[in-house]
Structures are given as C-alpha cells and as structure tokens.
C-alpha cells in the first residue's frame, strides 16, 4: 500500500482548520490501509524538506489551506522534489487563490461574475469605492477571512480605522442579494448544488467552522434549470483554470432583484476544499454516494506532480 504524507497546519490564518482537515484525512487513510504519516508544517521549510526526504512518501496529501498551501508555493516545492500530490498544480492553484485573476478568466470563459474594483486604503479614504452595499475581500485569502459587507458611511469609516490588510490591495465587489450556493467538482464533474444558510450574518469564518451556526441544504431547493446552470459554470471554472482533483466554486443566487429572472454570479473557486466534519466537499460527495474514506482514497490515487 502507498506511503502517504498528509501535510497540515501551515503558516496561514487557516492553520487550525487545516489541522482538522489533516487529522480527518490521516484517520481515513489509516482506515483504508495506507501507510499514513501526518506532518505538521511550520515556517521552517528546510525541516519540511528534510522530513519528506526521510519519509520518502509515494504521495503527499495536501491538507494545507490558505497562503503557502493553496497558492502554488507548496505545489512548486513538491514539483521540484518530484513527489506526486493531491489537488491542483502550481499554476491552477496560484490563479485560483488570486480572486481577481480567477474572476478575469471566469469572465473570459462566459461565467458571470459580480462587478469589482481593486483598491488600497488610500482609495477608500478618498471614497474611490463602489456604491453601497459592497463587499471587501482580501485578494488572496480563504475561508472568508477579512471579508466585510459595507452598507453605509459609518461601516466604511470603521473599516478604515481597523484596516487589517497592512497596505495591501484588496477587492471591492458589488454586493449581490439573494442566496449563497456552492458546487463541488470532482475530476471535472459537478457533484451537486448546496445552499448555505447561516443562521446569523453571512458565511464568514465563524459560521463556516462553528457547529450549529450554518445549515447546508443538499441538494439546494431551487429549480433544476438553475442547478444545472451552476453545475456547468463550476465545471467550466474547474476546467478553465486547469484544476485537477477536487474544487469548489461559490455562487450568489439572486432571486430577489427579479424573481422571474434569477441572476447567478460566481464569486470564487477553492482549489483546496476543506475536509473537516463541517466541510462542504465531503457532504456533497456523500450525497453523490462517495464516502469520506473513498473520497480521500480517490484523491490519493490520482495524485501527480509537474516534473
């Protein structure tokens, strides 16, 4: 049986979630009979390289989330070491992590997206923004870290006073009313549409990873033609970025502005979907008849690297 190293934790703001994913994957690998090793990644990259050289894995299961884990960096390192790894390769990961460039490619591929503007703190102070309401997003973070909905002058001023982005450019995106949907894709094929229903606020970090804060409706209670539309968009997003393995694309489903003509926009793609007990990918796979353990095994058996 293959020797598999599970890389978890990491250096991003999502390290704790990454560790939950890694532990779940590690346990599943043991159940499937793999020779599994859970490795906690830190900022000491030399130590990581040495560990991988000592273990000599056949495959790396990349359970890292956020920066370094899903932005092309760890993928580049594993490519150089010649170790096959799960999920998307360097280029697809780098583009998928950059919301701005990913949306540019989505638009070119005919996938509808929300209007956006890339700005700095100075731009916001000068009121060079979007009409209210708008959404503020870091360009290259995940798990809804640093996401704010700005509805008025006071909220905009509060954002300026507590600016968390250290001078970096961020994305302002027109707020799209309606419902939040997501589509998991496995090997280029959509598994189904899930509606995400936070009990309070929006689907931020706390609502994602806290028990009983969000309901997932599988399948989403929407007309089949719109479900099929989102599945096609998610498959196209997966393909246009050159992704492999599993991805998840998030959407807004606007049945509020004009209920007779539902408007759908893609928000972003996740090339490294979570695998925690509250994660959406395993839930969609289960609905499609794929157990958690089989999903993990499938990703391991299809792992590759770019030599």
CATH structural fold name of the largest domain: D-amino Acid Aminotransferase, Chain A, domain 1
Distance between the terminal alpha carbons, to the nearest Å? 24 Å
Query: What order do the helices and strands follow?
Result: EHEHEHHHEHEEHEEEHEHEEHH
| CATH homology superfamily of the largest domain | ATP-grasp fold, B domain
Describe the structure in your own words:
The protein has a 5-stranded antiparallel β-sheet with strand order 10-9-8-11-12. The protein is α+β, with helices and mostly antiparallel strands. The chain is 36% helix and 24% strand. The protein has helices spanning 15-31, 45-55, 73-81, 90-97, 99-108, 121-125, 153-161, 205-209, 224-240, 280-287, 292-301; strands at residues 3-9, 35-41, 59-62, 116-119, 134-138, 148-150, 170-174, 179-186, 189-198, 214-217, 246-254, 263-270. The longest helix is centred in the N-terminal third of the chain and has 17 residues, at 15-31. The protein folds into 3 domains: 3-87 and 296-301, Rossmann fold; 96-113 and 177-271, 2-Layer Sandwich (D-amino Acid Aminotransferase, Chain A, domain 1); 116-174, Dna Ligase, domain 1 (2-Layer Sandwich), CATH 3.30.1490.20.
